[in-house]
TrEMBL record:
This is Carbohydrate kinase. One of its GO terms (molecular function) is kinase activity. PROSITE patterns: PFKB_KINASES_2. It comes from Thermococcus paralvinellae. Keywords: ATP-binding, Kinase, Nucleotide-binding, Transferase. Residues 2-293 form the Carbohydrate kinase PfkB domain. It comes from the Archaea. Belongs to the carbohydrate kinase PfkB family.
Amino acid sequence: MIFAIGEVLIDFIAKEELPLKDVKTFEKHAGGAPANVVAGLSRLKTPSALISKVGVDSFGEFLVEKLKKEGVNIEYIKFDREKHTGVVFVQLIGAKPEFILYDGVAYFNLKIDDIDFSFLERASLLHFGSVLFAREPLRSTVFKVLKKAKGKIPIGYDVNIRLDLWRGREEEMLRDIQEGLGLADIIKIGDGELEFLKEYGIDIKNFDFELLAITKGERGSEIIHRDIKIEVPAHKVKPVDTTGAGDAFTAALLSALWHMDKLSNLEFTREELLKIGKFANLIAALSTLKRGAWSVPRIEELKWYKEAKEIITGIKFLP
């Protein structure tokens, strides 16, 4: 089972293509990068679970019910009586998201006492992202969990920088990201984030990872394993909503590793990396054809795509 730790929240997506101050109507969707990933994993027939926290409120109930309906294991999600469930407002002008994210919410209040470390006995990988470092006590909790997991199971990291959460604390952000990179075995990062880190003298390729996936939008992705480096072309579509495309890519990447039984050794041939990259690019592209961050296609919808068949053939869940 693949576990993710971190935020689960409500995405309020603007229905009008106007500045957020002028928008009158929003659609409610489940979101939060780690939650998006585990929901995507479940849709790709990969067992998944989320470690997180929601408020004792209607939104918290909605999110837990949605995750359960998607087939995600919810037993590691706690309810918080101190903080409300997280929300974010999203504008999709030009299909490129603009976010207003609020802190002081339940997932940032995840404490070490909330963690049931028995999950390590069930986990084949632990996934996390950089948003977790932005506020305490979540930051300290996550680093303690990662350090306890290190060496026991592979760790996946989506760098996923949200600068609005770090205003005036950029040095702290960079320090935490570097510590996260040092703990990760599998890293996913966007090309813009890669260049941002380079401007501050951080070259991600100097870290000791087993697999690095660099997403490049319309230009596809680059997959690196030790001295093997491959460029994977994008799957071309006309996007409607790119909100969860990066998380869809991550879900597909991890799902491919799980289905190919690669999480136990993280050894890859060039051909295997190409299959993994094609699958991740395909799922990311198809996810942009629907609104909302939980738009990963279900496995049954993929039977017509060669890029999917290369990963899922023989797994006994295609009709």
